[in-house]
Amino acid sequence: MELTLNHLPVLTWNHLNLNDVKAQVDTEGMTSSLRDGTDLPDGITAKYGASAEEVSNIYDKLDTATAQEAFIAGKFPMYNEQKFATGMGADMDLLLSKVGAATDIYEVAAGSKVEEPILFDTEITAGEKLAGAQIVLCKEGSESTWVYAYAGHTEGSGATVGSSLRFFLEKNAKVRVVIVQMLGASDTFLTDFGAVGEADSELTVTKLSLGAGRVYDGLSHLQRGFRSEFLVRNGYLGLPGSYTDINYNDIFVGKKSKGVMRFTGALFDDAEKVFRGTVDFRKDATGANGDEQEDVLLFGDSVVNKTIPLILGEEEDVEGRHAATIGKLSDEMLFYIRTRGIDEKTAEAMMVRAALSDISRDIPVEEIKKRADERIDTLIQRA
Amino acid sequence: MDTKEILLSIRDLTASVEEEEILHGINLDIRPGETHVLMGPNGAGKSTLGNVLMGNPVYKQTGGSILFEGEEITGESTDKRAKRGMFLSFQNPLEVPGLSLDAFIRSALRERTGKPVKFMQFNRELMEKMKLLSMDPSYAERDLNVGFSGGEKKKSEILQLLMMKPKFAILDETDSGLDVDAVKTVSEGIRAFQQESDGALLIITHNANILKSLSVDKTHVIVKGKLVASGDASLIDEIGKNGFEAFGE
Amino acid sequence: MSEMRKDPAIDIAEREDKIILNDVNRELYDFIDEEREEDFYRMEEGLTEEIVRQISEEKHDPEWMLDFRLKSLKIYNQTPVPDWGPPIDGLDMDRISTYVRSKSDMVGSWDEVPEDIKNAFDKLGIPEAERESLAGVGAQYDSELVYHNVREDVAASGVIYTDMESALTGEYEEMVKEHFMKLVPPTDHKFAALHGAVWSGGSFVYVPKGVKVEIPLQSYFRLNAKGAGQFEHTLIIVDEGADLHFIEGCSAPKYNIANLHAGCVELYVRKNAKLRYSTIENWSKNMYNLNTKRAICEEGGIIEWVSGSFGSHESYLYPSSVLKGDGSHAEFTGVTFAGRGQNLDTGAKMIHIGKNTTSFIDTKSICKDGGISTYRSSVVVAKSAEGAKASVNCGSLMLDSISRSDTVPAIEMRTDKADVGHEAKIGRISDEAVFYLMSRGLPEAEARAMIVSGFANPVSKELPLEYAAEMNNLIKLEMEGG
């Protein structure tokens, strides 16, 4: 089926082809669970296979639809059809419902501090098509860490993985989410994320894209509560022939909320990448602070890199910043490394590896971290 | 004078930055094991000389020659110069998140020797040198220069000097911005380099403190892109007393 | 015109004094001169083939131009309204007269300009500005130029500065035909097509090889008629190694029905030539300003845009630079101030095609009293543009929380042998800065106005003095308008 994903919240010139992306996803034979026999630690309970109606009721109860805004002053409607917004948008939900993917609902009990990461280590078999959805309800004052790894011997098989995650953070909840994708060049990876954060909540999302040939990566976080915090670290390797499409929205509603989003990547040969990143200050989000940075290194005659970083503001008492650097390593940095006898090519590989290792060290499961680092080395060598 | 003995020979060197000529004909010979000091007021071209010798593309060598061990290195890339045994300690070392200090030094050594680095031996030596420089061992695994204080950054540069053992090292304002204790520690590191190897040094500074415990063979004064005086270590004291005015500043 | 020129420094100081002493006068732009029906020729409202034919006939178009107009009309009818940007539902072409002109002909001496039109321009200080510091002046009133003059020495150097109609029907017809709407074809977007169909007025400038015009040329556009459109076409060719500064100013009185401005500016910058194009736009707040400006640079050519956008109800304005030649360079410096009832969508486009091309964008957006300001841009680096460097820097200042400020910058790179840097910031006036100025005795309003002027300074410092002063006056006006 054809999906329209990763909508830019405010439209711009159509000829740039940045307003959204059309993705062809083969749903034939797609199965519907990403559950992996995970034993749940104390403090976490699960309800597997919730129906669409149950899910809808949960959204109503949590009042997650406040993220919707029919109009941006004087502008065409913002894209928003979901009750609980994600970065990819409604078509991703449509895909899940079409393949009959049920939603697993997890709950982290109030006040429980779960130290052990909840690990979903998914082994993808050749040609497999898999989709699944999760809602994680993080009760007041709870702390939890969620790790998702996708890998397998899928090279050349055209496997597809679709994952939809929604996190609701009650007051004071602290959540870390780590997503590591280590699929093959012919594989498609759809990774969708939505979050709502109440007062004093803290959400950290770390994502590494290491291998899949087609990556659709969306995230939307409604920072609804006072003083909520959000940190994103996203690293990707755009290998030859690959397409990466990213859309992240950080929406500030709560006063004094703070968000930092960092994107680091490298593109090789004829890799193509589209990055949309939005810092969206809604009215009354006084004292909010949003900061977004993208650094891309380009290696190859035919790379295509598109970047559109938005700052939307309807509150004056905010601070917003976006910066991007696209191209080569800075002359200064290259000179420093070369004074130590390291040639340009090695220096470049070294810097790409450094940038990604800097992200992989956030992986709290040693075994996954090791695999990610090995994967980074292999891919950089191959590229 | 037998030119073969000379490690680094600079002749009529001119260089510019953004079309403006900064160095107007520098001549300088440095022999193995010698320590030269280059002093001069701000903006005289001290750092420019260091960067040009190391081939920083921001600086343009517009004339003259640079011979290293008798071979012309003008136009050669920075990493090739480093592989020949040249080294530059930076005034403002750069930060690299994700790359640890020890991994960086290991890669640099591997590049220079073309051989894998023996892990145990490397580690032992690294710890030894870090101790000498009063660096906490945890710094080895920290990201290169990330979150280091000014003093720690300079120590990290001297640590790289000690580990890489170049034939010729330029120390660009290694003492700038350091407190008294840090200057002393860094200076001890430099002395260790002088004693352990026959590596030559070109120490760029405008402060005599770092030189107190070092043996200095020659001192040069640079003003407005020209070497206006050369002498032995006593020149340092003279500058300490009278400043650069006597040299036409 | 051979009066003694004063020492420029003294001259500037005196003028600055005068400007500071003058009270800001809101009437300056909003005065309405009732047009007496019998003095003006006015096309009936709406847009039909019949109307386009009539305009063509009025203007004595050559045959090819009539064909061009009709083709453009067809494209206009087939092209949808943009689905991005400010909504333009308030604009009804059936209520816009596309052609209004004074029945008197264009003149070359200010004294011969009809009294009422002269009064209007006098109030805007046009002849005065000319005497002071311009190489040539054109003044357009509604759809046609009413006055055109070039200093003798400038004309003697071979510089051509005339109205488009004279150029088109006279000896420069071929040159016009070769360049007219080649850079901005009618297929570009709906309002480019509209322009192609009903354009009238505007200026034609040719600067011959190697000629450096030391002082600026200026065109002033005034749309005085109610419910009318202005569709002037500006075509400038700066030949190899030549140098020109061109200034345009725009204003209109406010009516309670919509006016439309859909002008088109095409700039050809030849090898090693340089053109600076400065605009202070102060259309009234019932104006739909759907303007298209584009420059193309050959090898080593330089285009510099300086742009101040203050007026109009809604604006779509993104001057584009096509850096075709190797080593060509473009700069865009702009400030946009959106006040009550304004939705200003402005920015720039840079297209790098040649090797080692460079571009800089530096913009400031300010919004207040419910105004909406959007910075929109695109920087495209083609595969061929090896060694290109581009940087974008945009700042937004919000003066209250009923206004809105958005930043929508796109970057597209198709080579790894280029570097692009981008930085955007949004924020408000720091209380500390206001406090600091107030502690030195400035009233709060003045302190805030001063900070806003400072924010816009990168633009005002690029403008000739009297324009910088005008811009600061406009900022002051907007700041007081709350």
Describe the fold and architecture.
The complex is a heterotrimer of chains A (383), B (249) and C (482). Chain A is 16% helix and 43% strand. Chain A has five helices and 19 strands. In chain A, the strands form three sheets. Chain A has a nine-stranded mixed beta sheet. An eight-stranded parallel beta sheet of chain A has the order 5-7-9-11-13-15-17-19, with helices on one face. In chain A, α4 packs antiparallel against α5 (366-382). Residues 70-77 of chain A have low confidence and may be disordered. Chain B is built from seven helices and twelve strands. Chain B has helices at 46-54, 78-84, 101-113, 119-132, 150-164, 180-196, 234-242, and strands at 8-17, 20-30, 35-39, 59-68, 71-72, 86-89, 96-100, 143-144, 168-172, 200-205, 218-223, 226-231. The model of chain B has no long low-confidence stretch (mean pLDDT 90). Chain C is 27% helix and 34% strand. In chain C, the strands form three sheets. In chain C, strands 5, 6, 8, 9, 11, 12, 14, 15, 17, 18, 20, 22 and 24 form a 13-stranded mixed beta sheet that branches. A ten-stranded mixed beta sheet of chain C has the order 4-3-7-10-13-16-19-21-23-25. In chain C, strands 1-2 form a two-stranded antiparallel sheet. Classes of the chains: A alpha/beta (383), B alpha/beta (249), C alpha/beta (482). Chain A binds chain C through residues 10-14, 16, 18-19, 72-76, 267, 281, 283-284, 298-328, and chain C through 83-87, 343, 372, 374, 376, 378, 383, 396, 398-401, 403-428. β18 (304-313) of chain A pairs antiparallel with β24 of chain C.
